[in-house]
C-alpha cells in the first residue's frame, strides 16, 4: 500500500477534486492534516460526497482552524501551536491520500512548511492549473521535490493549455497521471469516470 501526498502549485488549483479522484481510483483512505476555514464544509466533507464506494475511511484532520488563511496565521488567531511533529498520519492498511494546504512552502509556523509533512516514502502528486505564471510555479514546485528525492507525478487541471502542459512535461520529465478538464460540475459519476481513466497511471 502507498501514501500519496497531493499538493498544488498554488491555492484553488483543483487539489480537492484530484484527491477525490485518487481516493476513488485507489479505494484509498483520505486525510487532510490541516483545514483552515470553511469548517462546516471542509475538504474532507467535499471528498466524502464525491466518492462512490464505501471502502474508504475519512480520517479526522489533526487541526481544524477557523480562519481561511495560511495555517501559521490561522493557528495564531486560534492560539494554537502548529508543528510537523504534532501531526501524525493515521494508520491504515489501505492506500492513503493526503491533501495538503495551498502549496509546498505554505508556512505552518515560523520555521516549518507544508513540505515538512511529506515523508520520504510518500508519492507526491502535484496539481498544476494554467494561469500566467503557472509554468514557473510548477517548475519550482516539481524541481524542489525532485531535489529532495521525492517520487513526483503531475495532474493538470482546468482549461486545456497545450503549450503550457507540453513545456512543463519536457522540462520536468515526470509522469503525468492525467488531466481534469473544466467540467460544468463534479459529482460522483464524473469523479468515477476520471478515476477509471487515471487508474492505469497510478
From TrEMBL:
Keywords: ATP-binding, Biotin biosynthesis, Cytoplasm, Ligase, Magnesium, Metal-binding, Nucleotide-binding. Pathway: Cofactor biosynthesis; biotin biosynthesis; biotin from 7,8-diaminononanoate: step 1/2. ATP binds at residues 12-17, 43, 99-102, 158-159. InterPro entries: DTB_synth_BioD, P-loop_NTPase. Signal peptide: none annotated. GO terms for molecular function: ATP binding; dethiobiotin synthase activity; magnesium ion binding. It comes from the Bacteria. It is found in: Cytoplasm. GO terms for cellular component: cytosol. One of its GO terms (biological process) is biotin biosynthetic process. Gene3D superfamilies: P-loop containing nucleotide triphosphate hydrolases (3.40.50.300). Its cofactor is Mg(2+). Its EC number is 6.3.3.3. HAMAP family: BioD. Catalyzes a mechanistically unusual reaction, the ATP-dependent insertion of CO2 between the N7 and N8 nitrogen atoms of 7,8-diaminopelargonic acid (DAPA, also called 7,8-diammoniononanoate) to form a ureido ring. Homodimer. Belongs to the dethiobiotin synthetase family. This is ATP-dependent dethiobiotin synthetase BioD.
Amino acid at each position: 500500500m502507498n501514501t500519496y501526498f497531493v499538493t498544488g502549485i498554488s491555492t484553488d488549483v483543483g487539489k480537492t477534486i484530484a484527491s477525490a479522484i485518487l481516493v476513488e481510483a485507489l479505494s484509498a483512505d483520505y486525510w487532510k492534516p490541516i483545514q483552515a476555514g470553511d469548517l462546516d464544509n471542509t475538504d474532507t466533507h467535499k471528498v466524502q460526497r464525491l466518492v462512490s464506494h464505501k471502502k474508504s475511511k475519512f480520517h479526522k484532520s489533526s487541526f481544524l482552524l477557523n480562519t481561511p488563511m495560511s495555517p501559521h496565521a490561522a493557528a495564531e488567531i486560534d492560539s494554537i501551536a502548529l508543528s510537523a511533529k504534532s501531526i501524525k498520519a493515521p494508520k491504515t492498511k489501505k492506500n492513503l491520500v493526503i491533501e495538503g494546504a495551498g502549496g509546498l512552502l505554505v508556512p505552518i509556523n515560523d520555521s516549518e512548511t507544508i513540505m515538512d509533512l511529506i515523508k520520504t516514502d510518500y508519492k507526491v502528486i502535484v496539481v498544476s492549473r494554467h494561469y500566467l505564471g503557472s509554468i514557473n510555479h510548477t517548475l519550482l514546485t516539481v524541481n524542489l521535490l525532485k531535489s529532495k528525492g521525492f517520487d513526483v507525478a503531475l495532474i493538470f487541471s482546468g482549461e486545456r493549455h497545450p503549450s503550457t502542459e507540453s513545456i512543463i512535461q519536457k522540462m520536468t520529465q515526470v509522469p503525468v497521471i492525467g488531466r481534469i478538464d473544466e467540467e460544468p460540475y463534479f459529482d460522483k459519476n464524473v469523479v468515477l469516470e476520471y478515476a477509471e481513466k487515471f487508474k492505469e497511471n497510478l
